[in-house]
Amino acid sequence: MSDTIHVISLDALIETNNADSVGRVDELAPPGLYCRRPPRGIDTADLDPDQLPWVHEIYNAGEQRYGAVRCTVLKDALIAGQGSVVTRDGWLVRDSAVEFLAHGATPDGFSAADYGALRLPPPCRRISTPVVLLKRPWWRNYGHWLIDSAATLGLATRLRRPPSWTLVVGRQESPPMRQVVADTIACLAPGVPVLEHPDNEVWACDEVMYISPLHIPPLFKHPEGLASLRAQLLRAELGAVQPARRLFVSRGLHPARRLDNEAELIAHARQHGYEVVEPQHLDLAGQARLFHGAASVVGVKGAALANLLFCPAGTACLVLSPGDFPDPFFWDLASHAGVAYGELFGRLTGRDRPQSHNSFTIDPARFADMLPR
Question: Out of 9-23, 65-79, 172-186, which region has the weakest mean confidence (pLDDT)?
């Protein structure tokens, strides 16, 4: 392998037809198009003014075209950082690190070299069994695990799998997240061995079965991947619950994105039949069941709202966001689930934390106007 590493897209890599690096390519899902449901309301009165043009543009992105999902066997490849893949001839697969590269950042585990190239330390471990890579950037987060990795595993069940294969995931430090990952794999791929890859190690693998990303920020999520995950995790629940619960999703004591007047908003929501829930204290099945029984959902933008995927069509949601955080991730997700999406931006009460992590407050009158009933 070359001392310096350059970047190539998965499509370009496949088109080079380099038999030394690229083996079999299987199509798991065809190209297509989906349409996003227009939001039922977006209140931007307290959004940072410099974000307004982008928000108006992004929430008009009603159509999403996407390419085929392919599983590409990469021979003698490296896995590094947060799931970055490097071919045997020194190409970093852009798709595996796009969350870093799209912002001009060096992917975790790499260092910068001359002329835009990258470097990696030598591998510390060799894996001889074929591996399916589930690790993706931001893999520690529940929402990213669900939408990026679990959905990928849902589609991977369609693969012509070798007799011996292994899943590669990140090494979760959080006991609840370790359990979520274990529960997901037990449901979707029972009995398949799992290897936990630390971000600071480089692994050399005889064969990496690399699946096209099913989520590319800020918007795209693959509809078949989400539908497959939803169907498999709600196998026993679909059609069994009448949606009736009104959920106010609290982040508890989490310091990021603290809603300073949460107690006031909860008091108003309770008058309309809402109950306060903290999904992070439930296992994966419990979270899926909770949201599958919801008629309406309100909460601060964060990982727990990835469970909107499990809501029945017709559920209404209201996402509460600090005024410096116009991320349309949950609008797109709500569209896939048939959820009517609303968002209310709040006034920042400080700017002492990174963007999207600052504390904020929500205007009670505007909250009352947008609360789903």
Answer: 9-23
- How many independent structural domains does the chain possess? 2
Give yes or no: residues 60 and 73 share one domain.
no
pLDDT at 114: 85
* 292 and 239 together in one domain: yes
Q: What is the DSSP string of 15-55?
A: HHT-TTTEEEEEEEE--EEEEPPPPSEEE-TTS-GGGHHHH
- Domain extent, residue 43, equals 35-64+235-370
Judged by DSSP in three states, 126 sits in strand
CA-CA-CA-CA torsion sign (131, 136, 141, 143): negative
pLDDT in tens, 45-69: 999 999 999 998 999 999 999 999 9
CA distance 95 to 216: 9
Distance, in Å, from the CA atom of 188 to the CA atom of 181, rounded to the nearest integer, reads 11
Q: Which residues contact 217 (CB under 8 A, 6 or more apart)?
A: 99, 102, 329
Q: Which tokens is 230 given?
A: 């939803």
Domain membership of residue 145 (yes or no) is: yes
305-321 pLDDT, tens per residue?
999 999 999 999 999 99
Write down the pTM of the prediction. 0.93
Are 145 and 209 within one domain?
yes
Residue 287: closest CA among 344, 341, 247: 247
The pair of three-digit structure tokens given for residue 155, joined into one six-digit string: 């589609």
Q: Which residue has the tokens 């595996």?
A: 96
Taking residues 169-191, report their average pLDDT.
Answer: 94
The residue to which tokens 């439930």 are assigned: 282
DSSP structural state of residue 309:
G
Please calculate the CA angle 368-333-227 and round it to the nearest 5 degrees: 135
Is there a domain that residue 1 lies in? no
